[in-house]
Amino acid sequence: MKTLIAIILTAIFSLVLGIYFPWWSIAIAAFGISLAVSQNSLAAFSSGFLGVFIAWGLYSFWIDRANESILSTRIADLLPLGGNPAFLILFTAVLGGLIGGLSALSGNFLIRPGKSRRDSENYYQNKFGPR
Amino acid sequence: MRLFPFLITTTITVGLVYLLNNPIGNKIPMALGAFVSPQHGFWQNAEPINHDFNDTLSIPGLRDRVAIYLDDRLVPHIFAQNDEDLYAAQGYIHAKFRFFQMDLQTRAAAGRVSEIAGPSAVNFDRSQRRLGMVYAAERALEEMEKDTLLKKVYDAYTRGVNAYVSSLKPEEWSVEYKILNISPEPWSNLRTALLLKMMAKMLTGGTENDLAYTNAKAIFTPEEFDQLYQRVPDSLSPIVPKGTPFARPAIQPVIPASADSLYFNPKKQVAYNQTDKPNPNNGSNNWVMGGSRTKSGAPILANDPHLELSLPSIWFELQLTDNTGTTYGASLPGSPFVIIGFNDHIAWGITNAQRDVKDYYEIKFRDGKKDAYWYKGEWTPTQLRLEEIKVKGGKPIIDTVAYTVFGPVMYESSFSNPTTHHENLAVRWTAHDPSNEGRTFYKLNRAKNYRDYVDALKSFTSPGQNFIFASKSGDIAIWQQGKFPVRWHKQGIFVMPGEDDSYRWQGFIPQNENPHSLNPARGFLQSANQRPVDATYPYYIPGSYITPRGISIEQKLAAMNGIEVDDMRRLLNDYDNVTGRALQPVFLKYTRENDLNADAKRFLQIFKDWDGQANPESKGQTVYQVWMDSLKTTIWNDELHQVSPAAPMPDEQILTEMLLRDTASVFYDDINTPKKEGLADVLTTALNKASLKLAEAEKNNKLEWAKFKNTSIFHLLKDAVPSFARRGLPVGGYGNIINAITVSHGPSWRMIVHLTQETEAYAVYPAGQSGNPGSPYYDNFIDTWTKGEMYKLLIMKPGDVTHDRIKWKITLSPED
């Protein structure tokens, strides 16, 4: 549930920030949401990734439909994606998602409780028994 | 926090963002992250099919409101209350649809391609600077701005352009900016001047062969040289009808006493090839039929300029209306006015004059340094101009160019790699002289009759053009107008001595002595880049003339009566290969069939069956053309390669007449073999050689002319963006045929104007109004052009707002 919220919020804020700031503000959005929603690290990466993946994927798909793939067919040939608009949309979504995921993960490592000396002592005790 | 993991992932993230925010090596020129971002990158240029172009905005400097109506072909119909506002609006609209083109073309004209393309463009940039392109634009600008009316016009145009450009956020820039990772540069009047000089170079940069001729005189006797390079073809259909008398020349030039030893001397050679020579096919057709020849009794004018075809096109179609009237036609993004078109009273069109207006002078520098040259008996200081060429991914290059009384010293040992000679050659080019061509177009756009037309042409100096004309009152006319030097016989076709003024041009042909004609008895006029006059014209006028199309057009027009618009459309699309048809019997008679290889025999049969038309499906046309190209090299190469750089190939018309009349010419002989070859030998050899290429094409199912020719129209960035091109268009024709479509060169604009009371006009060009590869209007005219069809033009009147072809309105208001 938290993850779902994180995904949706990441998607929304990526697009909102993108109105006013350069493209890499998706990193800021994903980082920010990940600070606010505590999850485990895998969930954080996933929600950052999926949030931007969905935002960029849907938006580019919507643009492409209205344009009847005129430009995407051309660009998909320019970047070697075989002239296939679907690949280009996928590429867009994945690229954005990657940035989103890594940013969210960074944010997650910032808020996750770190390993203290006490924790490492507990670890030895749990593994090998008291000394 | 998990410090260590945090630092690692943050570093990776920031690193990845940085990587995607900049070009990566040479393969990825764009900032990939920004490029694919739906809100910032190329996706923003993917125009919705049903995009709404309605808009209301204010731009600085307007005096009154301007209404711009866009029709269903995205042609703007601009309605302003005065001329300044009109041209400000034109600037705005040009920028809106074509700014990248304007930006790129003028940077290229200024020799600034290396900034974008890196070191591979340095030679081109150096060539542009040394030719004096920026110098020419600066001088033109000075002159343009002395004219108060024109200065207001250019200022307004620049304001309009910049109003658009400055309103853009980076995500709204054209997709090419995003690909190249550069930003739009503001417009200026200088850039308008640069655009005009780009046209001048396109049309007069390649109409002389002086460097190559200088070497050719070493291997040919004066008689041979004349026969190959100077003869006025017997078959010429000149622009000014044969038999028109010419006035006694106002200026009689005097040949210098030293000419035999210092000029005609075959030993005087140069080591240079002309760099970056424009396409010699940069020509065009135009013709005009007077009322006596048309069904309606009203004149019909047709024009198709032949230029490199590109996406977007060099032309932009629009209609301009202010308080003095309306003009409709093709304009050049980067310049105000309609360049080819019509108004409520007249129509006009242009073809290239092909005249030689560029000469070379040999300069002697002092002590191998460029600061002084020997002139009129003393060391005269040069003006050194430092040209800084910025190079992407490298250090800027400073090229120092010395300017003399003749012009810039373009060729010297530091530019080009001479073999044994180290001549320094200065360029004298009419495009360097101050001029105000804009005034011509301003007036022509508003001209009401023949007198206005002649008056408008007064200010036109470069590049020389054949202005064809028709008026509703029934006049038809043509005038080859430009600043043409008065030459003594053969002056300027070789490099001239530059140590004093004895070889300088002794004047310019007065406008009224330039070739022209008004209302000839035969009732029609035409020009197709041929020599404008027959040999009785009293001036020496070298040029790179193209003869066959004029012959073809004249023959066909002379045979027509009761002409209608559609007859003209069909003539513009004519595929008749006059040259090929004339040569067919000669080729068949003299080729030794028994000495042909098996493939060649087959192709000969195809050639026998050929109907002489360059249709898209024709195999005979392919056989003919490949055979003819092979024949040219077979006949000429042995002679031409006796010098280095090689002497120029004689014009095709010379060869054609030779093949038809002189079956025993000495030129058929290959001078490198002991045998004395004749016409039969060269024809047979040529077909055998040609059969290799033809067989290859046949194997790939590309023997049909359109498939073989593979006519393609490329984006301005050419190979960098192959998917922005339109390739393999099913069209026939060739450079020497009326429908002059070669590989990526041809009719860049086709127009027919029927000057009935209510003007009827048709046009098409092979591109679209929008320069955006993401727009459905990028290339939507190409299919119509390919099929040989044309659009009926909407000549909008103010009351036509409710016309069903009018789709959108842009309102420009003054700033308050």
Task: Report on the architecture of this protein.
The complex is a heterodimer of chains A (131) and B (816). With 131 residues, chain A is mostly helical. Chain A is built from six helices and no strands. Chain A has helices at 2-20, 25-36, 41-67, 70-78, 85-111, 117-128. The N and C termini of chain A lie far apart (42 Å). In chain B, strand 26 (750-754) and strand 27 form a beta hairpin. Chain B has 23 helices and 29 strands. Chain B has a domain at 578-709: Penicillin amidase (Acylase) alpha subunit, N-terminal domain (Orthogonal Bundle), CATH 1.10.1400. The longest helix of chain B is centred in the first third of the chain and has 27 residues, at 83-109. Chain B starts with a helix and ends with a strand. In chain B, the strands form six sheets. Chain B has an eleven-stranded mixed beta sheet, covered by helices on one side. In chain B, strands 4, 5, 22, 25, 26, 27 and 28 form a seven-stranded antiparallel beta sheet that branches. Helix content of chain B is 32%, strand content 18%. Classes of the chains: A mainly alpha (131), B alpha+beta (816). The A-B interface holds A 15, 18-19, 22-24, 26-27, 41, 56, 59-60, 63-64, 66-68, 70-75, 77-78, 83, 88, 91-92, 95-96, 98-99, 102-103, 105-106, 109-115 and B 1-3, 5-6, 9-10, 12-13, 16-17, 20-21, 32-34, 36-43, 45-50, 175, 179, 721-724, 773-776, 778.
